[in-house]
Amino acid sequence: MRGRSIASATPAASDRSLTSNRRGPALCLAALTSAMLAGAALAQTRSTKPASSAAPPAAAANPATGANPYAQRFASLCAACHGANGRSEMPGTPALAGQHSFYAITQLFLFREGRRANEAMSAVARTMKDDDLRGFADYIGSLPPVPPPPPAAPPDTARMKRGQELAREHKCLFCHGADLSGGQQVPRIGGQREDYLRMTLQEFKSGKRPGYTMAMGEALSTIPPADLDTLAYFVARFPPPAGR
Ligand code: HEC
Ligand code: HEC
After folding, report:
1. For residue 152, what pLDDT band results from cuts at 50, 70 and 90?
2. What ranges do the domains of the chain cover?
3. 3-141 and 157-236 share one CATH topology?
4. Is 108's C-beta closer than 6 angstroms to any atom of ligand 1?
5. What CATH number has the domain spanning 157-236?
6. Which residue's CA is the nearest one to ligand 2's atom 29?
7. What is the DSSP letter of 189?
8. Spatial separation of the C-alpha atoms in residues 96 and 10, rounded to whole Å
9. Topology given in CATH for the domain delimited by 3-141
10. Which of 25, 38, 182, 233 has a beta carbon 3.0–4.6 Å from 186's, enabling a disulfide?
11. Ligand 2 mean position, distance from CA 69 (Å)
12. What percent of the chain has pLDDT over 90?
């Protein structure tokens, strides 16, 4: 499998990476197969075209008005924490804008089933039906990426360089893509909130966040905690502003 094949995979290739990597967790997700395949098809649309030209998800849109009920539900149920445009301003809360629907539906499923734990999100996901997982994930997949606010200070060049080296050495760029935009079940991470990145990397390493594949646990197993901070620093500021 070549470098970008995981991040920008075709649906067939993404199935392969799920099953060949992790048989067990993939089986636990079997209940979601049809929703995920549909999610994969949508993610494929997203990853090959700009978000704005992606076809609206037929099931979620009201043909009479064109309104997506999940856009309204997102505004009333999710925006307070994740931001109206999907760029969160709340500590510890990930930006969802630019995230892939296939990744989003999997994470919502994990929260709902208690396999990824966070008090706030578990409470939100607990009552979701499969259609809701799908509707919210498709809506998230339609939100164009929003860059982080301009940094107060220019990035520390030495730290950025070290972060880039670590990202290459530990294959972050291999799986998440050279531009860290992910694809399908691999999340976009470039420009994500630094506090969230730091927390979630530590949780993957400690096993507190199991993931639906072992990919992250394995990727981080040999990395010392201080390097996780450097990776979070680099990823949050990626891509660095031009000319620096
Ligand atoms: C009270 C605040 C809060 C609300 C409301 C909320 N979220 Fe979250 N959400 C979080 C936090 C915090 C996390 C990160 C949890 C963690 O990893 O510990 C999260 C994580 C997520 C993730 C995983 C993102 C990733 O990058 O892994 C998705 C998807 C998500 N939320 C979707 C939603 C949707 C859809 C709604 C509305 C139906 C919603 N959230 C409402 C706080 C909230
Ligand atoms: C073998 C492929 C692979 C490698 C290598 C890899 N990742 Fe991941 N990463 C994934 C997958 C797949 C997920 C989705 C996690 C899940 O639920 O299983 C993920 C999730 C993440 C997340 C969570 C994003 C979110 O929104 O919650 C972060 C952050 C992340 N990776 C950063 C990194 C960094 C930094 C490296 C390098 C040290 C790295 N990854 C290496 C495949 C990979």
Report:
1. confident
2. 3-141, 157-236
3. yes
4. yes
5. 1.10.760.10
6. 197
7. -
8. 22
9. Cytochrome Bc1 Complex; Chain D, domain 2 (1.10.760)
10. 182
11. 31
12. 68
The two three-digit tokens of residue 111, written as one number: 């929260």
The pTM assigned to this predicted structure is 0.82
Pocket test for ligand 2, best of 175, 231, 235 (most atoms within 8 A of CB): 175
For the CA of 168, the nearest ligand: 2
C-beta pairs of 111-115 under 8 Å, 24+ apart in sequence: 113/28, 115/28, 115/210, 115/212
Question: 15 CA to middle of ligand 1, Å?
Answer: 25
Q: Give residue-wise pLDDT tens across range 28-72.
A: 343 344 444 333 333 333 343 343 444 444 444 555 666 899 999
Cα(126) to centroid(ligand 1), Å: 12
CA 36, 38, 41, 42 torsion-angle sign: negative
Smallest Cα–Cα separation from 198: which of 170, 231, 221, 168?
231
Q: Which atom of ligand 1 is nearest to the CA of 73?
A: 38
Q: Which ligand is nearest to the CA of 14?
A: 2
